[in-house]
Amino acid sequence: MINPEPGTEPSATRPEPANCVVAGSALAEWVAGRRRFARLGLAAALGALGAFAMAPCHIVPLLLISFTGLVWQIDGAQRAKRNWLSVAGTGWAFATGFFAVGLYWVGNAFLVDAATFGSLMGVAVASLAAGLALFPAVTLALAAVFWRSGPHRIILVALGWSASEWLRGHLLTGFPWNLIGYTWGASLPMLQITALIGSYGLSLLTTLAAASPAALIDCGRAGDAKLLRSAIAWPAVTAAAFGFIAIFGVARLQSKEPPDVPGVKLRLIQPSVPQREKITSGNAARIFNEHIALMRRPGSATITHFVWPEAAVPILLSEDPGALGTIAQVLGPNQWLLAGSARYEPATASHPERYFNSLHIISTDGVVVATYDKHHLVPFGEYLPLKPVLRLIGLRQLVANEVGFTPGPRLRTLAVPGAPPVGPLICYEAIFPGEVVQPEHRPAWLLNITDDTWFGLGAGPRQHFESARIRAIEEGLPLIRAANNGISAAIDAKGRIRQKLALNAIGVLDTSLPPAEAPTLYARIGDLAYLGVVFALLILWFVTRFGGFPPKLHTPFISPIG
């Protein structure tokens, strides 16, 4: 037996330290080698860069730079003494940059009543970005517990980021805005896969592909041809997977469409009333008359259903006989109005006074025959969380009434006279994957009414529109969208835009109602489809990490790079 040289041990008991093999450049080592504040600053810059892959820019290749850099940064963070804390900080900084750039438009809501809320704009945007970033900070730190050198670590980044998106979409009332999968918003074929695995599934696969170039900069022995082939395989396989997704999407869009719903003709009203005018007293009558004038535009006699946007006029329609009377004069026989409006209930022995953000169906007689109350409210916009505490420091919700809005009981399918049953979604409710229809009573179409003037004219309304559009693909249901200042549109069950009105245009959109399709896989099983993708990647991680499944318990522990 040959004894080891002094100061060495057999590799079976102490593995050789992994050496970073930089393929063609020292970039990976430079990124991994940043320390403390430099690493946090670089992480924030990488996250901010990734945000430009979202609407309206859709520069998807930037995700390759962003998430590959994140992998390398976690490689470096693993070298720190408290590596879990260093990874958490890196993930938090990366996500803060991503959300700060992607959600900058939230500040527009504070400028509607600038005298009251304008000073809070910067603090609010920064706090929102930093708060949302806590989700990736935690999940990436947990993923890094299993971090080892090798191409398989990109799976951990993808699973960690994806888990943060799912948790962000469900905890604390949820905020699933700008999921990574939405970067494909400019490519309808790529979105078709959401009919199978939903937005969370597409996001997971997109993050995996975006991080895959990091596999080319692997850890092991220099010149190891087997290692190099393994490293090259990861981006190649993810590219092939997205090739399949594209082929699936193109083929799905080629399928023959059934005819539109007979006997239904919709007119979407888009008045583009600035939010400042809605909250200024004395404008109610003028704004109401503008909606009436748009209803009366040529061709109104052929319309069966008129649609007003969310909170269309600054009056309580159900409490205003004069307004209902005027509406009755405009509506002809077999015509109906679906109108967004605030609704008020006075205090009773069982509850205090309440306001609801509602959708009314109004008959040709000027009678409200059905109402849906928005159940998923916007925190700080429509209600104030922890109201007794936050009121003490002078905060209140952005809506004008003093008590805020009360949530409705649940999603509900409404029976619409003269049309198939509808699933109403008021503004923010359209951003929640798998949570847009009443499960026991599937509607035949989705109606999203919204007032995106709160979001300004930049990225916000475009991001909101794309998110709502993907709900149609996920559910296999057409989506009709009436927005105060746009983007109003008629979208079929595969996400194709039949017609639309541009952002901030004033006008009407007359459209037929596209048909519903059979429930998609995602509509039937929801996020179980996404969990199936997660499970498949976990198996792949075990196989590539341990060389077999189940894992071999005697496999030597390989320390992080460094």
Order of helices and strands: HHHHHHHHHHHEHHEHEEEHEEHEEEEHH
Number of helices: 18
Give the percentage of residues in beta strands. 5-15%
CATH fold call of the largest domain: Nitrilase/N-carbamoyl-D-aminoacid amidohydrolase
At the first level of CATH, what is the class of the largest domain? Alpha Beta
Helix-strand makeup class: alpha/beta
Mean pLDDT: 88
Largest sheet: 6 strands, mixed
Mind telling me the CATH superfamily name of the largest domain? Carbon-nitrogen hydrolase
CATH architecture of the largest domain: 4-Layer Sandwich
Radius of gyration: 27 Å
Strand arrangement, major sheet: 5-4-3-2-1-11
Helix content: 40-55%
Q: In terms of per-residue confidence, which ranges show pLDDT below 50 for 5 or more consecutive residues? A: 1-25, 219-223, 548-562
What is the count of distinct domains?
2
Task: Note the overall shape.
Answer: globular
Number of E strands = 11
